Amino acid sequence: MISFRRFRKCFGSHQAVVDLTLEVCRGEVLALLGPNGSGKTTTLKAAAGLIRPTSGTVEIGSPPLSAWLPASREALSFLPQRVSFPEALTGREVVEFYRALRNAPIQRADDVLRIASLNGAASRSVSTYSGGMVQRLGLAVAALPDAPIFLLDEPTAALDPAGLEAFYSLVERYAREGRTVMFTSHQLGDVERLAHRFAILVDGRLAALLTQGELRDRLSARGLMRVRLQACPDALLAAVREVSGAAEWRDGALSVPGPASLRPAVIEVIRGHGGEMLDLTSENGRLDAWYRELTGAGS
Question: How far is 104 from 172, CA to CA, in rounded Å?
Fold first, then answer.
């Protein structure tokens, strides 16, 4: 439903996206991940037909059409990263305006206001809305058309818990209905719950394309367990290093990098050597740390 073939976009001498080839299928939820400036928004805007490729092609729909053609936009709905609406209008008036613009049925206004959890605020002017409420209003507008493709740029950036739940429910429903969703996010919780696959962009290039399980494994492998001990004799450290060769004793704590699957064995080794554990913390790898690895930063 969305196809990038050697898509390249330059702004002057700056290459925002370089030779991106990517297919997003019907009914798939794909998350675009990457550090700031990695080309996520440019990629999404190209699919929305808002920018023309410098080279390569971007096609959407079935049968596929160039995303740049006005007819292609009938097949999609796009939520930009920053949304703003006339502050003198009420939430319902904003939704009604866009409903008429997209020729959506009259009852869709009530439907999307309910989806975005804005029923109680629909009669208030936008000037009284918080940032999270404006974002929810944007989500309501994006949900208006009965489109097969949804493109969402940082849709959860300013959402409160009610807005987050509304967004999750909307995307999960679209996936069940066989619609295609592509969204950008910096929040691992968003992508782990919603996305089927993850495209990792770094410096405008596709650095990795992973399934949900593959991403979880990559981050788990970069995890860290820290165990505060009363003492760590050389024999204990040597035994732990047989399980995780990169284990270190520093500042009163044993640091053991590696996946969660190693941690029970490390704890057994500590107990077997009579180690007295004072505290234990563990975490999986962080997306931002992995981005630094992919870019070579800090190496």
Answer: 21
> Over pLDDT 90: what percentage of the chain?
62
Separation CA 287–CA 283 (nearest Å): 12
Q: Which long-range contacts (CB under 8 A, 24 or more apart) does 233-241 make?
A: 233/273, 235/273, 236/269, 236/270, 236/273, 236/275, 239/269, 239/272, 239/273, 240/266, 240/269, 240/270
Q: Are residues 241 and 279 in the same domain?
A: yes
Spatial separation of the C-alpha atoms in residues 180 and 177, rounded to whole Å: 9
Predicted pLDDT at 296 = 61
pLDDT over threshold 60, residue 297: no
Residue 138, domain member (yes or no)? yes
Q: Please determine, for residue 182, whether its predicted confidence score (pLDDT) is greater than 80.
A: yes
The answer to whether residues 153 and 79 touch, using CB atoms and an 8 Å cutoff, is yes
Tokens 């495209």, residue located: 199
Look at the block and give the residue holding tokens 């190209």. 46
